[in-house]
Amino acid sequence: MWAHTPWQGRFLPHPLPPAERLRAYASWCNAVEGNTTFYATPTRATVETWARQTAPDFRFLLKLPKTITHERRLANAGEELRAFLAAVEPLGPRVHALWVQLPGAFGPRDVGALAAFLRGLPPEYRYTVEVRHRAFFEDPGAARDLMRVLGGAGAEWVPFDTTVLFRSPPTSDAERDAWTKKPRVPRRAPALTDRPVVRYLGRDDVDRTVEGWGPWAEKVAGWLREGRSPTVFVHTPDNAEALPLARRFHDDVRALVPELEPLPEPVPAEPPTLF
To answer: Which SUPFAM superfamilies does UniProt cross-reference here (predicted)?
Structure first.
């Protein structure tokens, strides 16, 4: 997302060479959702540029390629997994977690495949799992089975909270597109590990987005007080204001937990002037 066009020149300097764009983004936020890795495994050289642009404590949460999660459905994907792990190795400690995003058709009957897959993963990484089948949210037995598998592997369950998006009809083209693509599932908040991860999707209207994240600010503050280290990704359908919204969410949590460290100071989008 650090090359998102609406941010260029508004929040991030423009033009910037590709090898500097992540560095500018990292002055706004200290974590990134690795969505591009879902579509293709990056080259090792590309990942080396990501490492050079970020501090060792910057958090990458990288999605496994869809060839593993969606096409092979976690089975017989050893070659693809090895290639992916070799490519992301240069990030070192920056890999906060590897993200297993599963398709909506991956349901309770597939939990055994997930358990086998998680058992075969290298222990040096942490793992997060995102499910979209409604049964995991509506059937207590299915939820318990999934949590048992995740707990046995020390993996986290990533909630994708779209409840604010679906609370009322869409009012923009981006919202209408999101209505056709995003999962419509109940909000889920419990954390399974000391590194909970949250995806929150608001609206293109800033005020409605901020109003809707109130429960998450309280929840994240509680996790911090418990000694957990949560990561929260703030989305809107068009993501045009996602950078300042992420910082605003961080400020809301800091108001509840004052000892939380501030985010870095963003690099100016435009060079300073003499007047």
So the answer is: TM1631-like
What is the rounded distance in angstroms from the CA atom of residue 257 to the CA atom of residue 98? 28
**Partner residues linked to 130 by β-bridges:** 101
Q: Could you read off the pLDDT of 172-200 as tens digits, one per residue?
A: 999 999 999 999 999 998 999 999 999 99
| SS3 (DSSP) at 224 | helix
Question: Look-up: residue for tokens 């799992």?
Answer: 129
231-235 sheet: strands from edge to edge? 160-161, 197-201, 231-235
- The Cα 234–Cα 213 span in angstroms is 9
Give residue 272's pLDDT. 53
Phi, psi (deg, nearest 5) at residue 36: -65, -30
pLDDT in tens, 126-183: 999 999 999 999 999 999 999 999 999 999 999 999 999 999 999 999 999 999 999 9
- CB–CB of 235/199 below 8 Å? yes
Q: What is the mean pLDDT of the chain?
A: 95
Exposed e or buried b per residue across 199-229, where buried means at least 16 C-beta atoms within 10 angstroms of its C-beta:
bbbbbbbeebbbebbeebbebbbebbeeeee
Furthest-apart CA pair in the chain: how many Å?
A: 66
N- to C-terminal Cα separation, the chain? 33
Task: Sheet with 95-101: list strands edge to edge.
Answer: 31-34, 59-63, 95-101, 127-130, 156-157
Backbone angles phi, psi at 127, to 5 degrees: -130, 145
d(CA 260, CA 125): 25
Q: How far is CA 18 from CA 22, 69, 262, in A?
A: 8, 28, 27
Give me the pLDDT at residue 103, please. Answer: 97
